[in-house]
Amino acid sequence: MNPECVECDEEYNPRRFDLGYRTCLECGDAHAEAEILRKSTCIAPAYNKGAYMYVSSSSMARDAGR
Questions:
Q1: What pLDDT digit, counting tens, does each position of 3-59 carry?
Q2: Shortest CA distance to 44 belongs to which of 56, 59, 57, 54?
Q3: Among 8, 20, 23, 59, which one has the highest count of C-beta atoms within 10 angstroms of its own C-beta?
Q4: What is the DSSP track for 44-61?
Q5: Rounded to whole angstroms, how far apart are CA atoms 64 and 25?
Q6: Cβ(11)–Cβ(23) under 8 Å?
Q7: Cross-strand pairs, 11
Q8: CA 60 to chain CA centroid, nearest Å
Q9: Domain boundaries, the chain
Q10: What phi and psi values does residue 20 have, to the nearest 5 degrees?
Q11: Is the pLDDT of residue 66 over 70?
């Protein structure tokens, strides 16, 4: 029996389930596209001896580096 997608309840390939995915390819693709669009509005400034950080709002930008 094939696993069912948690989004649309369609069956998908069990090898995808073995890799840790709980969604079918179409639902996973839609989620990935939404995440790409969200991250495209973020910036990642470099800090001196610090890690990169996504800045997604103007309030986060004001507080960056403090």
A1: 999 999 999 999 999 999 999 999 999 999 999 998 888 776 666 666 667 777 888
A2: 54
A3: 23
A4: ----TT-----B-SHHHH
A5: 37
A6: no
A7: 4
A8: 20
A9: 14-63
A10: 105, 0
A11: no
Instruction: Give, in degrees to the nearest 5, the angle at Cα 5 between 7 and 36.
Output: 60
**Residue matched to tokens 């470099």:** 46
pLDDT at 44: 67
Q: Which amino acid is at 44?
A: A
Selected residue with higher pLDDT from 8 and 62: 8
Structure tokens at 15: 């090898």
DSSP classification of residue 5: -
pLDDT band at 1 (very low <50, low <70, confident <90, very high): confident
Q: How far is CA 36 from the centre of its chain?
A: 7
Location of structure tokens 């669009």:
37
